[in-house]
Amino acid sequence: MYGVTKEIEFCYGHRLLGHKGKCRHLHGHNATAIIRLESETLDAMGMVCDFGDIGNYVKGWISQEIDHNMLMSEHDPLLPMLRKAGERVYVMDRNPTAENIARMIFHKVATAGYPVVEVALRETGTAQASYKP
Ligand SMILES: [Zn+2]
Fold it and tell me: How far apart are CA 64 and CA 80, in angstroms?
């Protein structure tokens, strides 16, 4: 089995509904998405996937949709206020935890046809969550 890993750095804000600690307040992270691709075969170039291709695709989507954006649960009562104030928001159908953000990125990469096996999200220097089906 061959594998490649690509890391994409981005910034986001969020808050976690129902959290008992400080994560219930609006705050942000300088995060890294760590995308793991695997394949039993290589392409004509001898690669699982060109780092440039996966990097451009994921970075493009992240830049457009979630970088420097506020990731919010669709159930967050702050949503109407943020929208009314002209704030940019990205609405998720679940709590915007590192696990769920990793899952969202996984599905975006998988849908584009890349042989992704796992996506991790390093939220801080010491905390990382991941998703693989
Ligand atoms: Zn957080």
Answer: 22
